[in-house]
Every structure is written in C-alpha cells, then in structure tokens.
Amino acid sequence: MTHQILRHYVRGTDFETSPGSRDLSRAPLRKTEGCSAVTSVHSRPPSLDSNIITPNPFRLRYLDLTDCQRLDDAGLERIVRHFSQLTHLYLRRCILITDEGLKAIASYCVLLRELSVSDCVLLTDFGLYELAKLGANMRYLSVAKCDRISDAGVKQIARHCYKLRYLNVRGCEAVSDDALEVVARSCSKLRALDIGKCDITDRGLRVISHHCPNLRKLSVKSCEMITDEGIQIIAYYCRGLQQLNLQDCPISLNGYRTVKKFCKRCIIEHTNPGFN
Fold first, then answer.
1. Of 158, 217, 154, nearest to 191 (Cα)?
2. Is the pTM of this model over 0.85?
3. Which residues form the signal peptide (predicted)?
4. Which residues, at least 6 apart from 22, have a Cβ–Cβ distance to it below 8 Å?
C-alpha cells in the first residue's frame, strides 16, 4: 500500500495512527480529503499525556486535510507537533484555521516546502509573517481567496521565501502592484503565478516580465485594470509561457495575437468569442 486514504470520515472526531500500525508506517502519503469531522491526529494511544511530544514514527512527509472543516488551531497544532517532518501540507477550505495555526506550522514543520491554505478565510497578514520564518525551504504557497491578506503579508513572504516556484494569491483583492514588485524582484525563480482578481495593473506585469523571464504559468483572470500593453510585455519577455488565463480581462485581439506570436506553445484561456 503506497497511499493511505481516509475519505468522508464523519462519525468520529479523531483518527488514530498507533505506533504499531505497519500499514501506516509503510505509506509515504496520507490523504484525508473530505474528512469533515477530523480535528486531530494522534501518533500514540490517546490515553497518554497530550502534552508529551513524541517522535514521528512514520516519517510522514505528505498530508492532505482538504475540506476538514472542523479542524481548528488546537487540532492542527497537535498534528504538526507529532508530524514535524512534513514537507507537503494541504489545508484547503479548513475554515476554522487562523493565524495561530500558521504559527504552529512555522514553529514545528521547519522542512515544509508546499502549503495550501486556500479558502481559509480567517487568515491575515500576521499569519504570513509567521510562515515567512520558513524561509528558503518554501517552494509552493497558495493563499487563494484568503481575502484578509494584503500587500504587507505577501511582501514578507517574498522577501524571506525567495526560492518560491509557485505562488497563488487569487482573490486577495488587497494585493496590488506594490506586492507584485517585491515578489518579482525577490522570487526570480518563480514558475507559476496566480494573481486573478487582484488589484493589478500593467505596472505589475511589467516588473514580473523583467524579473521572472522563466515564468511558465500565469493567471490574471478578472484583473480588470490590465490592458494589451501589460500582456504584450509579458509575452515578449516570458517566451516560455505555457499557460495564460485571460478570462474576464479587457484584452483585445491584438493583445491575444501578440501572445500567440511570441509564446508559441502557450495555451490561452479566455472568454472572448472573437479570439477563436
């Protein structure tokens, strides 16, 4: 067994991973997608003192808790204390997680490389200040639709997590060109960027094109202030672009043709019937 999958676990509030479980110890990946009642993970019998931190007997690296909507900060802290060797953690739509949960992640999971907290609507810039302490280990971060996050938090992430390859701030409407400029100058190895529905203009796209020429995926979906000029600059400097989302953007056929001209292999997503 290479994957241990727990789906739609709704009757209990805990699931146990006892040290004697051979199946779990052999499974490198754990997924608990849709476990709406999961609040904590134990690496020992629950009768033991919960304040004792024991080693992670499974060397767990990957944990997906997507849609575990009853998971709170206390449960998350318990998880990361006992599985401190996590490198990939996905908490999409865990709506009770706050900045305190992110603080626990940064404190215990110092090897973390990928984190998604998309749709965790209680998170703010203070949580990103904590995550920034993970530094250059971080390669992937999604805070999509965390609408309390602004330029301040994104700037802190960019300055400290400068080896990011993937950044998703889609729907963070308080994120503007100011943050994008710091991201571009700090994270030159960025390969994928989603700034859909952010407060972005051509100025932000210009600085991205100059400092992140190896960008492969870009989404500016619903960025109403960008124009052909910004997209043309991206196309000219980021010629390795493979995927571009222009849906609900005021881009003309001229801008579309420029992308097709310079980015030969680019798949363009759009909502303009005139482009076909």
1. 217
2. no
3. none
4. none
